[in-house]
Each structure stands twice: as structure tokens, then as C-alpha cells.
Amino acid sequence: MVEGGISKADKTEFTECWRTSWKTPYIMRLALSAGIGGLLFGYDTGVISGALLYIREDFKAVDKKTWLQETIVSMAVAGAIIGAAFGGWINDRFGRKISILVADFLFFVGATVMAVSPAPWMLIIGRILVGLGVGMASMTAPLYISEASPHRIRGALVSTNGLLITGGQFLSYLINLAFTQVHGTWRWMLGVAGIPALVQFVLMMSLPESPRWLYRKGKIDEARSILGKIYPDEEVEDEMQALNKSIEEEKAEEGSIGEGGMIEKLRKAWSNDVVRRGLYAGIAVQVAQQFVGINTVMYYSPTIIQFAGIASNQTALALSLVTSGLNAIGSIVSMCFVDRYGRRRLMIISMFGIICCLVVLAGVFYQASTTAPGISKIESAHFGANSTCSAYVQAPDASSWNCMTCLQKATDCAYCSNGDNRVSSTFTLERLIHYTTKYGIIL
Hints:
Elements: H1 11-23, H2 25-58, H3 60-64, H4 66-94, H5 96-115, H6 120-147, H7 154-178, H8 186-191, H9 194-205, H10 211-216, H11 220-230, H12 233-257, H13 262-270, H14 273-291, H15 294-307, H16 313-341, H17 343-371, H18 377-382, H19 390-394, H20 403-409, H21 425-438
């Protein structure tokens, strides 16, 4: 709970946000410095998709074992789960500022470990460290912003964190594309991820702790001093009273839950109708958000594009900018209309669109996978001379090939061709799905 609550981020509030921030730049400094945590989360989501293309080239074990690719990608998510869980405890015990600093340290160390990794196992360790930092920062950043910003523009400032997440994803694809011609490719892509963490660490060292946390810990004078930098002098005492009222109400709610261990507190909290309904809504929304499949698309976007017949890493990364760009635009659209049309209506519309797209994709992939012919020299000979990649037919080690090998050897053949029609779109899609299924890129 935040004193005064988080007001709606409508058009008037965004105007007021701009006006207030112009008069008091310190407010925007607080919000943007903490918001880098969202940027870190978005950057991590997008950067591995491009780096994975080159990691597979350097480490043959990763190229041949899809479970190793999946482990490298997913360990950041596993680390984020743990980081978010422990982040809550660190927030309450040591403060929001300390939590962000620890997250930055973990992220910087993780990015460095990945950049110098001599083997896949070290990459996995680096991904876990990065995940721990991302988990802590992603849940602490909006909390710090909400507690260190004026109540009248709080909604607008907190919403910038979501924009920075999608902006970080778009930035990661740009960074990936910039390093495609540089020696070390993926090492630079992953290593550069430590720069935002370092920048945030330096910025946060000069910023104060959350005034709400300080007030709750009995450091009233420090809280008043910080509020004096955020609010006009004539409003400071009113905000102190609102802060006191909010914390007293929070303590009263905690008292209604009672003492005891964690299990006992959870049981009593669950018996509270308000808490239970809020928990239902919160869990349902978060689960739905993660299960729509956007993270899979963001993690494997360049790989998916390559399986559509684009062999070039650079081209695949460039085309992936469309996905991340639309994702960022979507967040801007939601910020503009969420308070005009409501959260529920926009969520229903977006979920309907997502379901339709997923059903179409599932139908196309299923149909193609059930009709795609087998890939071997025998099947190739059966379909006639040069009915598939000529380099594949003549290769002595064709059994070890994968889809990218064929594309890189003879890009003019696509997946299936013959003398009359060098590129058969039907077979191209079928080959795409066959290889996608066979090598487990999309599961």
C-alpha cells in the first residue's frame, strides 16, 4: 500500500507529470534511475535471442543439443523467480535502495561471466546470476518509483517502468545487430548488458532511500527531508500526515492477520476476503501474461525467422526488430488508452487477438508437421534428382546436418526445389515445420 494510492495515469496526469517534472527535475531523476531496472529486464529478454545464434556456432554441443539451448535461455527466468522472492525480503529488511544496488551487482557480475565464458556451463551460471538481478530489480523498481514520487503523478511515473521494459527489448535487438560484424559477437552482446546495471548502480548511490521505508523504520526526519525535495514546502506536512495515516492502516491490517510463523500468517491472510480476491486477480493476470507465449517469441525470434528460410544472422536479427518494435508500440498504446477504456476491456481485446493468432499458428504447424516428408538421402532420391538441397544429397556427413547447414550451403535451394521450380513454397513450409519439430526449437 502506498500513501494516497496510485492514481490513474490518464491524459491529464501525463500532462501534469511533464509540468511537475519540468519544475522539479529531481522527481524525474528518481523515476528514471530506478526505472533502469525495467530496462535491464527487457534487455535480458531480447539479447539472448540474437546471441544464441552465434553461441550455437561457437559451441557445437549447444547447436546439436536443443535441451542445452533451452537451459541457457531458461536459467535467467529460473534465477528471476528466486531473485523476486528474496527481493521482497531484502526490500522490507534493508530498503529499496539496497535491493536495487544488490540487483545491479548481480547483473553486472552475471553479464561479465557470460562474456568470458569458455564453455556452456559457465554461460548457464552467468544466466542464473543475471536472472537473480533481474528478478530483484523488476519488482523493486516500480515499488521505489511509487514510493518516491508525488501522488498526483504517481501512476504516470510508474507506467514508465513498463515502457522501459519493452524499450529494453527493442534496444537489445539493435545492440545485437550492431555487433554482428564484430569479433566476439555474442560475448559483446551479453557483456554490454552490464553497462545499464553499472549506470544504475552509480546513479542510485547518489539517491536517497524510499521515504516510506524510512518513515516505517522510525527515521522520520530523513523521510521529511526527502519529501521536501519532491513536494513544495507547503505540501510537505500534508504528505507526512498522509504517509503516517497510510502506514498506520497498513500496520492495523498486519495486526488483524496476527502473529505467528509464515504459514500461519498466510492462512489468516487467505481468510481475508479482500486479500483473497486481490490474490485471485493478481495471480490470474500474471499467469495469463506469461502463458500467452510472447517470451518464447522474444527469446527465439531470430531462430524462428531463420527456420522460415532466412539463413543470414544479420537479416534474421534485423527482421526481429519488427517484433520488438511492435511490442514497444503496444505498451505505448496501452498507456494512452488504459484509463480511458479500462483495464478489463483492453485485456479482453488483447487476449482475444492473442488466442486467434495462436490458434492459427497451431493449425498451420500441425498441418505441415503431419504432411511433411522425411528428410534423408532415400527420400531425396525418391522425389527425383535435386528434389532437395543438392549439397545435402552429395554431402558425406548429411546425417549430422540441420536446417541451417542446408541453408548456408545452398541458399538458392531453400528447403525443397526441382528443375522446374527452384523454390516450392509448399515444401518450404513443410520442411520448416519438420525441422522445427525435429530439432525442438519451438516446444
